[in-house]
């Protein structure tokens, strides 16, 4: 296994991210609710740069009695990233797709030593 030094822990603020090259791979590191999560920068849909997409709260579309959506609501507890190529959404903590459950992001391992973040591949 190889380790790649990314940055110091305090360089990634809550709600922030850093995308880095680790050998021939790109990894996105996100801080959500104080915890770090690392994902391979490849959307499972069409291999787009998922980690460079827009970050926002989970969108909920409540359906009324006529089975119509009248408004959008946002769940601030679940932050998502949307692929800039086709808009596929994934939960930043779990990697799960907001649509078909068979798709998910591929997690990368992190190590923290002496305040420094390392990606382990």
TrEMBL record:
Record carries keyword Transmembrane helix = no
Matching entries from InterPro entries are given as: Rieske_2Fe-2S (IPR017941), Rieske_2Fe-2S_sf (IPR036922)
Pfam families, alphabetically?
Rieske
Q: Which PROSITE patterns match?
A: RIESKE
Q: Name one GO molecular function term.
A: metal ion binding
* Ranges for domain Rieske: 3-119
| Ubl conjugation among keywords | no
Q: Which PANTHER family match?
A: 3-PHENYLPROPIONATE_CINNAMIC ACID DIOXYGENASE FERREDOXIN SUBUNIT, FERREDOXIN-RELATED
This chain's protein is named Rieske 2Fe-2S domain-containing protein
Specify the species. Answer: Neorhizobium galegae
């Amino acid at each position: 296994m190889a380790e790649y030094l990314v940055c110091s822990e305090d360089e990634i603020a809550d709600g922030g991210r850093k995308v880095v090259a680790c050998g021939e791979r790109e990894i996105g590191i996100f801080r959500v609710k104080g915890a770090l999560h690392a994902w391979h920068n490849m959307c499972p849909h069409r291999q787009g740069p998922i980690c460079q997409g827009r970050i926002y709260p989970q969108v909920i579309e409540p359906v009324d009695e006529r089975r119509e959506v009248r408004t959008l609501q946002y769940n601030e507890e679940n932050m998502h990233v949307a692929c800039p190529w086709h808009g596929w959404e994934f939960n930043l903590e779990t990697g799960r797709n907001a649509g078909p459950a068979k798709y998910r992001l591929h997690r990368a391992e992190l190590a923290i030593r002496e305040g420094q973040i390392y990606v382990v591949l």
